[in-house]
Amino acid sequence: xxxxxxxxxxxxxxxxxxxxxxxxxxxxxxxxxxxxxxxxxxxxxxxxxxxxxxxxxxxxxxxxxxxxxxxxxxxxxxxxxxxxxxxxxxxxxxxxxxxxxxxxxxxxxxxxxxxxxxxxxxxxxxxxxxxxxxxxxxxxxxxxxxxxxxxxxxxxxxxxxxxxxxxxxxxxxxxxxxxxxxxxxxxxxxxxxxxxxxxxxxxxxxxxxxxxxxxxxxxxxxxxxxxxxxxxxxxxxxxxxxxxxxxxxxxxxxxxxxxxxxxxxxxxxxxxxxxxxxxxxxxxxxxxxxxxxxxxxxxxxxxxxxxxxxxxxxxxxxxxxxxxxxxxxxxxxxxxxxxxxxxxxxxxxxxxxxxxxxxxxxxxx
Length: 365
Prior knowledge:
By secondary structure, the chain is α/β, with parallel strands linked by helices. Helices cover about 45% and strands about 15% of the residues.
């Protein structure tokens, strides 16, 4: 398995893992939510690395992989029969492909309703979210009193130059349209109280991180380094990046509409002032203005006026849509999936003493 880069907190982990805070040990169980589509080989490697990372920090967890309409069933791969520190691994099959963000939304709603509202770690299944960062994010969540979402900020990315240029462009446009910087993605720890709140946010259907910001969920950001993909090729091409960006921006539709209205109004005001100044100059000098100039000035002034009307209409439509019954995760989640399927049952606690610790090389069935 390709090695993961060391976590930014690995050095401190080694010195403090033996004397972990009492609250960390008492609450050291959570569910790792992984949306996935046909990326089962990477997921198998990721679970091995996650099991090792949790063991090094004295933590245990359960794993729920949300199958986003995979063409290749997860059962076609050989999976370990059990893990040392992953108490249960399950696949929640969606009835159709809905996309990465909606798979996260349905997984969160399922855990909130069916699993008695646990703490949740959200991470991707391709390995780019470093499993060694999970204990660090969890400890930070405990240090915050289990009241804030802890997001992993991206101090450094590992994608190609072309992708990074596209992503930077998206960040700039997002900042211009919404006034809010893009500082983190899905990789995060959600405490139970925030999970209960998030599943009542309709915007969660479009984009998890943006919905957390839009609904003013208390959160902190911890800088991390993005790891490299474990296996296969990324599905995040240019069209997918555009769709992802539009989904995030759509969460702030009211803000976008108002900012566009202000921008169009300012442009209209500036051009109107320029046209007025030109008219005064022509009248003062007594020059004859060609008809083509008048037509051109009218078109120039008409464009921002049209944009302002469009922005105003967009704002009215967005505000009117608030009264319509949209998707509510905590209410509508059960329409989209079949019962969860066990991958690795709870066998760790029932193992005999001589086999209580299973080396990574022997986990495969």
